[in-house]
Amino acid sequence: MSKKALGAMVFAAASGIVSAQAADLPYGGRQPAPYTVNQPLNMYSWAGPYIGGNIGYGWGDVTNNPTSPSGVNGGLQLGYNWQRGPWVFGVEGDIQANAADDTFAPWKFSNPWYGTVRGRVGYAFNNVLFYGTGGLAFGELKGETFGLSETRDSLGWTLGLGAEVALTQNWSAKAEYLYVDLSQRDFSITGLPNGYQFGVIRLGANYHF
Predict the structure, then answer these.
(1) CA angle 182-188-193, nearest 5°?
(2) How far apart are CA 180 and CA 157, in angstroms?
(3) Residue 108 and residue 106: Cα distance in Å, rounded?
(4) How confident is the model at residue 11 (pLDDT cuts 50, 70, 90)?
(5) Percent of the chain having pLDDT more than 70?
């Protein structure tokens, strides 16, 4: 191969490399901005089913009677949450064993158990949830006097507020206040309709699936 032909080939190859590099440069000679990826925020999700337990203290009054039953109560709860942005919507049911009772003169009234089925609406700050709750309440009111006893099951309503904190991906702790109104039922031993209205403060823990 002649020196002229070899020189022509080298010149052509060098011209191609320079042209390719020039094509990669942005218009005006400015360097391209570095490529970045927008990472989503690592927000805690409250959505899904959960189950847990609680313990608390309740105090209240029996209508048409001087007794004011109070005592420790505790039980189980289960529920399900839906989440849209920071807003959390859910349903929760619970059943409680209750030691609340009181005696005044010949009368003794107690509330051996109660439960609720409630809706919940809350606002989440990542792993901290503040919520309001309300719905149906049900339970048993027991009256005693002079060796006689009588029980009535009652329906009613409940309203409350609470806060829940996620401790891990699966476990959370909560504090809650509920006002419960179990409607009046007729009692033969008193000759009057009697109901039970009470407040309860309780602490609980939930496992989220």
Answers:
(1) 35
(2) 6
(3) 7
(4) very low
(5) 80
The DSSP string of the chain is: --HHHHHHHHHHHHHHHHHHHHHHSPGGGPPPPPP---PPP-PPP--EEEEEEEEEEEEEEETTSS---EEEEEEEEEEEEEEETTEEEEEEEEEEEE--EEEETTEEEE--EEEEEEEEEEEEETTEEEEEEEEEEEEEEEEEETTEEEEEEEEEEEEEEEEEEESSSSEEEEEEEEEEEEEEEEETTTTEEEEEEEEEEEEEEEEE-
In sequence order, the β-bridge partners of residue 95 are 76, 115
> How large is the average pLDDT for residues 75-82?
98
d(C-alpha 19, C-alpha 25), whole Å: 10
For domain 48-208, give the fold.
Porin (2.40.160)
The tens digit of pLDDT for each residue in 23-46 reads: 444 444 444 444 333 334 578 999
Do the Cβ atoms of 122 and 83 come closer than 8 Å?
Answer: no
| Token duo for residue 183 | 């409607």
Residue pair 71/99 in contact by the 8 Å Cβ criterion: yes
Return the pLDDT at 3.
39
Residue length, the chain? Answer: 209
pLDDT at position 168 is 96
Q: pTM for the full model?
A: 0.79
